[in-house]
Every structure is written in C-alpha cells, then in structure tokens.
Design goal:
The structure holds two protein chains of two kinds. Chain A is α+β, with helices and mostly antiparallel strands. Chain A is about 20% helix and about 30% strand. Chain A has four helices and eleven strands. In chain A, a hairpin with a 3-residue loop joins strand 2 and strand 3. The N and C termini of chain A lie far apart (about 70 Å). In chain A, about 30% of the residues are buried. Chain B has a single domain, classed as Calycin beta-barrel core domain (Lipocalin). Helix content of chain B is about 20%, strand content about 30%. Chain B has a nine-stranded mixed beta barrel. The longest helix of chain B has 16 residues. Classes of the chains: A alpha+beta, B alpha+beta.
Chain lengths: ~230, ~220
C-alpha cells in the first residue's frame, strides 16, 4: 500500500513536470548569440556573394556592371550628404555581418540585435503587413517582418523595403547582386540543428523587377553561449 | 522531497511576462534629488557633464543607460526564459538582461558599454537586475543628479502593476565618486499596444543646424 502511494506520488510529480516541460518547449526558441559561418571566402564582398548565382533582370545586370566599372575607376568613396530622410538599417548586410546576431524571442515579437546597435523586429502577434500601407508609414532598411512557428521552423515574411532616398545609398544590394526595394518580398525559414547549437536561415527573395526567378540561399550559424555583445559607435 | 522539487519547479516557471511596449507619461517619474559628492556637485562639474551629454547627442552616440530607460518614445521589452531584451528608439544598443544564471564577466573579459552588463533573477514577481561594467560614453546624466561612470553599479527592480498595464521599475545607483549614498528613484511605464514605424531615429551627426542648436549657449 505504501509503495503504491509512493508510486502514485511519483506519477503525479512526473505528470506535473511533463506538463511544465511541454509548455516550455512548445514551438521553437532561437534566443541566443549566433555567429554566421563563412566557409572562408577571403573578404566580406566574396562572402556576401558566396551564394547560388541569382537570375537577374538585364537592367539589374547592367546596373551592377556600371557600378563595378565605377569602382574599378576608383570611385569607392561615397561623398553624398547624409540625409535624415534616409532609412535606418540595411537588411542584407545585417544578416551577413560577421559579428554575432543577438536574438531574443518572446511570445509576440522576436528582436535581432546586430553590431551597430540596430535591431530588427519580427512581429509574432498575428498582425499582417497592412500597417505598411498606412499614411505616414516610413519603411526602415529592415523592411516589415511578420513571423509564425510551423512545427520546428520559424517562418518570416518581410515586405516594405524602403525606396532609396538619395545618392549615398542608391540601392540596397542583396547577396549575389540583387536588390531589395519596395516591390521586394522575402521569405525566411529559421531552423535549429545539432541539439540547438546550430541555426540555419534559408532566404528566398522574390521581385519581378529584379529577379527572373526566386533567389534562394542558406546561411548557417553557430551558437555562442558565453559570448558578450559588443557596442559599435 | 518530490513534492518540494515539483513545487520549486512550478514556481520557477510562473514568472510574470514583462514583455510589451512601455511608455513614460507626464506622471510616470518619481525622482528625488540625489546626494552628490562635493566633486560632482560643483558648477564646473555640472557644466562639464551637460557639455559631455550634448556632444554625445550631437554626434549620435549610443545614449545608453539611464537615458534609454527615460526616453519619451516607448521602449520595447521582450522576455525569453534566458534573456530579456530592451530596444529604444534613440541611437542606442539593444540592452540584454541575462536570466540564465550567469555571473558578470571580469573587467578583463568585457569591453565596457553604455548599457553595461546586466544579469537578472526573480524574487517572487519582481525581476531584480544588477548592472556593472559601464563606460562613460553616451548620455550619462542620471535623473535626480549625478552621472553614469565606469564605477557605477545599478540595481533595478521590475514588477507589473494594475493588472499588467503598468510596469514599475525602481533604479538604485551606487558610485562612491558620485553619490554620498545610494540614489533611488522609480518610473512607472504605461503599456501601449503598438509602436509606430520606423522604430529608430535616423540621427544625422553632420547637420550643422542641429549641432548649433544643441551646443550653442552651453557656455552661459
């Protein structure tokens, strides 16, 4: 009888613990510092373009060639004035940057911090992109991101990249020579692997004014459990 | 024994969720006058501090703590089981409060920042946050008097009020070179539903009119 009571208590406690564990592990938690894994490209430009080659529209290719010729001629310093109307942030550069991304995932929002102190926000509260159509909405260089969990994957949808405002930032270049702009749509899929020690993000860019077909590539990240974020002024 | 373990486990899982957009309003701040050391309370010291902060704003430097916690644009606080983040609209780094049991790093292992290094733990329904390893950059003035320095030590206590619609934060600063005794004040933030985009100021340090506005007259 005593043994039965003890067993019953153990079962009750295990049931409680299982319930708690279940609520805690529901969905995916990508919180942590994540270092992008560059396979050894040699330079940031090489790393940035180390993706499957996108199929670009001829006018984008022509624009890339003109830009390359200008740089080859020595025009590598942008002296255009900085304007307040320019959007803050550059999504493609942030996600490829060598300092670790610092991600905090809460129920309703995911914050992604980067080297320069800027943060990207992914809304998980069920909203759609309609606020980007509102009068007075000003796009940031990170676009407008909404996300949801599908099984063990965080699926993120981003639109409303800014219309570039001046000659200092004439275009926002995506890896491989594409463009992110107001007509661009990005889908991302965040997944964990290796018992949570690795994360992959698969990016798929779509924009009929830029790409002849969707451009997909994947970044892999390693978790840095004891690293400290640093501040870049 | 098992029951005690189970109770402890359940307690550990039931912390309040402080996540949300939190806004200061005209009646949000209860701030007394700090007891400053003689070195910090002189006119020259105050003038130097005012100049320092104006230069930081003019140069779009990350403003850091305590300025991000006192900005009139709402802060975005997001809590995960292991870390809580706070994002503010002015030029600033995201702030991270680690609740995974880690300790502060040594000075040799950490580059001091405007936000310092924060670790937190729960005491009932209150999140207690301990922050050190600040630098002297950014906007350093502390409400009520004094400035943040590399020697500053900040303890904050976060708790929800009014059914979760207010967030009370008490701040206690200690720094023997700045304060005669610990300086404590409290902010009570209002929960709001949304933050308007864009979420960050585009600060332009090269705007001469802005620089003139911020710096002219500081010598008076």
């Amino acid at each position: 009888m005593r043994t039965q009571r003890t067993l019953a208590k153990i079962v009750w406690v295990l049931t409680l613990l299982a319930g708690q564990a279940g609520s805690q592990s529901k969905g995916l938690d990508i919180s942590g510092m994540w270092l992008v894994q560059d396979p050894g490209s040699g330079s940031f430009t090489d790393w940035f373009n180390n993706v499957p080659k996108p199929k670009l529209r001829p006018d984008v290719i022509k624009d890339n060639e003109a830009q390359a010729a200008s740089e080859a001629a020595g025009n590598v310093v942008n002296t255009a004035p900085r304007l307040e109307t320019c959007p803050v942030g550059n999504f493609p550069l942030m996600m490829a940057s060598s300092p670790a991304l610092n991600i905090v995932q809460s129920r309703d929002e995911v914050l992604i911090g980067a080297e320069a102190g800027r943060a990207r926000f992914i809304y998980m509260d069920g909203r759609d992109h309609s606020e980007t159509k509102a009068q007075g909405y000003r796009a940031s260089g990170f676009g407008h991101s909404i996300g949801h969990i599908e099984g063990e994957t965080l699926v993120v949808d981003t639109v409303a990249f800014p219309t570039i405002c001046d000659n200092r930032h004439p275009v926002m270049v995506t890896p491989g020579g594409g463009r992110a702009r107001s007509t661009t749509h990005l889908a991302e899929r965040f997944r964990l692997a290796d018992n949570g020690e690795e994360m992959s993000i698969t990016f798929t860019w779509e924009d009929p004014t830029v790409f002849l077909e969707p451009h997909t590539y994947t970044y892999r990240f390693k978790k840095l459990p004891e690293a400290h974020p640093f501040e870049n002024n | 024994m098992l029951l005690i373990l189970a109770a402890a486990h359940m307690t550990a899982q039931t912390h309040p969720d402080l996540s949300g957009y939190w806004e200061l309003r005209y009646d949000s701040m209860a701030v007394g006058v700090a007891s400053l050391t003689a070195a910090m309370s002189g006119r020259d010291a105050i003038k130097a501090q005012v100049r320092h902060d104006a230069e930081a704003i003019r140069r779009c430097t990350n403003i850091g703590i305590p300025a991000i916690m006192g900005d009139r644009s709402a802060i975005d606080l997001r809590q995960s089981p292991t870390v809580t983040a706070i994002a503010a609209k002015p030029p600033s780094s995201m702030r991270y409060i680690y609740t995974d049991g880690r300790k502060h790093p040594s000075k040799d292992d950490y580059d001091p920042t405007t936000n310092g290094h924060s670790i937190g733990h729960w005491d009932g329904d209150t999140l207690i946050v301990d922050t050190i390893l600040f630098n002297g950059s950014g906007v350093t003035r502390i409400p009520g008097g004094g400035v943040r320095t590399p020697d500053s030590h900040l303890v904050e206590r976060y708790r929800l009020l009014a059914g979760g619609n207010r967030l009370a934060v008490t701040f206690t600063w200690e720094d023997p070179k700045t304060f005669e005794k610990p300086h404590t004040y409290e902010f009570r933030y209002y929960r709001i539903d949304r933050i308007a985009e864009p979420r960050m100021y585009n600060c332009n340090p090269n705007d001469p009119e802005r620089a003139k506005f911020l710096l002219e007259g500081l010598e008076n």
